[in-house]
């Protein structure tokens, strides 16, 4: 079946849509080496077939949106385009319609030092826009269905990305990484989400790469500033230690109150770091319910 042809935003107006899960954990499970600053981008450069296989694992789990392996890539246009092609091949081989979302990670991700969980890099909004512009242009040239402006730690970076998108006609969702009801930089979440929701290019706002316990308060806040669909794809509850380059798992699994997330307006749901195909498949069953299909 060919890649999904209708706008993702139109489908979200009718029903929830299932995102994929963490690309890094799936590549690790496939035996790939993610060491170095490129992270998943290293596998994309050296073994694009493994990236396609990881996308395929999520398609088989029922994912309807694949997020590309471009999160931590800088300005290499060939590698950025390759990330879209890898997801496209997996989408076109699916038995159900699948959209491709080109990941636009934060500036801090390219630094590979965990600063995307802090924000406030010391750069101005125009400087951040200048950094992101060639990345977005390269990704859009490769033909994704939408952009995923994801794991943003503060409003400065959100404003920069929205400046780059203005007037392009591109469609995107924008999601912050949050903690305790604020952006990672400590800004009020209502203001941050309102900034994104006001942009005509943005069809959904929400959170990702955060503790599942932070999702519902964030969605409830988002619902006060927009009537549009919300997006949520948290981690499994683990905490990233940038100093050691290791994840620290929670003492017990963190519950996902998916029904409450949907009641708060979440329509685009999936997982981020350390959420694999099995959990995505289980989430898909909860979203579809008895007798539901991907149509």
Features:
single chain; 295 residues; alpha/beta; TIM Barrel; eight-stranded parallel β-sheet; two-stranded antiparallel ribbon; 12 helices; 39% helix; disordered C terminus
Protein described:
The chain has twelve helices and twelve strands. With 295 residues, it is of the alpha/beta class. The protein has one domain: Homocysteine-binding-like domain (TIM Barrel). The strands form three sheets. The chain has an eight-stranded parallel sheet with strand order 1-12-9-8-5-4-3-2.
CATH homologous superfamily (4th level) name: Homocysteine-binding-like domain
Q: Show unreliable segments.
A: 291-295
Note the run of SSEs as H and E. HEHHHEHEHHEHEEEHEHEEEHEH
- The backbone outline, from C-alpha atoms, is globular
Whole-number tally of structural domains: 1
Distance between the termini: 13 Å
Q: Report helical residue fraction.
A: 25-40%
Radius of gyration: 17 Å
Provide a count of the helices: 12
**CATH fold-level assignment:** TIM Barrel
**Main beta sheet: strand number and arrangement?**
8 strands, parallel
Strand content: 15-25%
Give the helix/strand class: alpha/beta
Record field, number of beta strands: 12
What is the annotated CATH architecture? Alpha-Beta Barrel
Query: Taking strands numbered 1, 2, ... along the chain, how are they ordered across the largest sheet?
Result: 1-12-9-8-5-4-3-2
For this structure, the quaternary state is single chain
**CATH uppermost class:** Alpha Beta
Let me know the average pLDDT: 93
């Amino acid at each position: 079946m060919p890649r999904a042809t209708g706008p993702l935003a139109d489908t979200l107006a009718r029903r929830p849509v299932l995102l994929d899960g963490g690309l890094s954990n799936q590549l690790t499970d496939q035996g790939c080496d993610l060491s170095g600053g490129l992270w998943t981008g290293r596998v994309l450069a050296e073994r694009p077939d493994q990236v396609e296989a990881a996308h395929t694992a999520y398609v088989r789990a029922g994912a309807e949106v694949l997020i590309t392996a471009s999160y931590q890539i800088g300005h290499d246009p060939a590698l950025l385009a390759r990330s879209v092609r890898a997801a496209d091949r997996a989408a076109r081989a699916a038995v159900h319609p699948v959209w491709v979302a080109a990941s636009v990670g934060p500036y801090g991700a390219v630094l590979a030092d965990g600063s995307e969980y802090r924000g406030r890099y010391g750069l101005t909004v125009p400087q951040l826009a200048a950094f992101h512009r060639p990345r977005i242009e390269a990704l859009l040239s490769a033909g994704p269905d939408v952009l995923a402006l994801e794991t943003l730690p503060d409003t400065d970076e959100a404003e920069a990305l929205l400046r780059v998108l203005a007037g392009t006609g591109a469609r995107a969702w924008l999601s912050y990484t949050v903690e305790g009801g604020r952006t990672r930089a400590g800004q009020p979440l209502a203001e941050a989400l309102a900034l994104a929701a006001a942009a005509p290019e943005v069809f959904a706002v929400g959170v990702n790469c955060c503790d599942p316990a932070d999702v519902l308060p964030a969605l409830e806040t988002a619902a006060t500033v927009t009537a549009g669909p919300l997006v949520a794809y948290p981690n499994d509850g683990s905490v990233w230690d940038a100093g050691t380059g290791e994840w620290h798992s929670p003492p017990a699994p963190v519950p996902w109150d998916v029904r409450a997330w949907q009641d708060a307006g979440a329509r685009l749901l999936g997982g981020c770091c350390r959420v694999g195909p099995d959990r995505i498949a289980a989430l898909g069953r909860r979203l579809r319910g008895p007798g539901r299909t991907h149509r």
